[in-house]
Amino acid sequence: MGKLNSRTLRIAIATGVLWLVVAIVAWWAIEPAAGLVGAKPRGLQAADLLALQRMDLQTEQTLLGKTMVWAMERDGLPPVVKAPVQTIEKKIVWSIAATVVRPKQSYLLVQDQETKAITQINIGDVLPDGSKLLQVSINTYVVRASNGKKRTVDTSL
Questions:
Q1: CB 142 within 8 A of CB 152
Q2: How do residues 78-88 score in pLDDT, each as one tens digit?
Q3: What is the DSSP letter of 138?
Q4: How far apart are the first and last CA of the chain?
Q5: Half-sphere exposure (CA, 13 Å, Cβ side) for 84?
Q6: Of 42, 72, 65, 137, whose CA–CA distance to 99 is shortest?
Q7: Greatest alpha-carbon span in the chain
Q8: 3-state secondary structure string, 12-49?
Q9: Whole-prediction pTM value?
Q10: What is the pLDDT of residues 80-130, one digit of tens each?
């Protein structure tokens, strides 16, 4: 902290005295407005009473009547349990119809044996057995099985 010399001390005292003089003049010379000091007007009390009156909650009541809040219906019966959806696994029999290797794109053509439909499987897509196609070359293709292991399949005879 710096030294407190006489000039700094005089400025601090002058500032304090000036502030005190202005405060005294403001206290005695300035009268507050009539609305600033006084009792609360009656109009505000009426507004407070309106806020405390009962609100119309008819729409909210009908919405809550239709919404199931608890685990029971309004008549005391438990809710109707929906039958669980069962998935049936259908085995898809498929084979590789062709391996296509182009300069910019390589893919497999997979044939569904049941419908004879041919589907294009690009690199990164999933084969019908759930494995992911990683690479396609002229005589082989590489897949990653669902268990995470890579497998190379030879397509040449």
A1: yes
A2: 777 888 888 88
A3: S
A4: 93
A5: 3
A6: 137
A7: 112
A8: HHHHHHHHHHHHHHHHHHCCCCCCCCCCCCHHHHHHHH
A9: 0.42
A10: 788 888 888 777 788 888 888 988 889 999 998 888 888 899 999 998 888
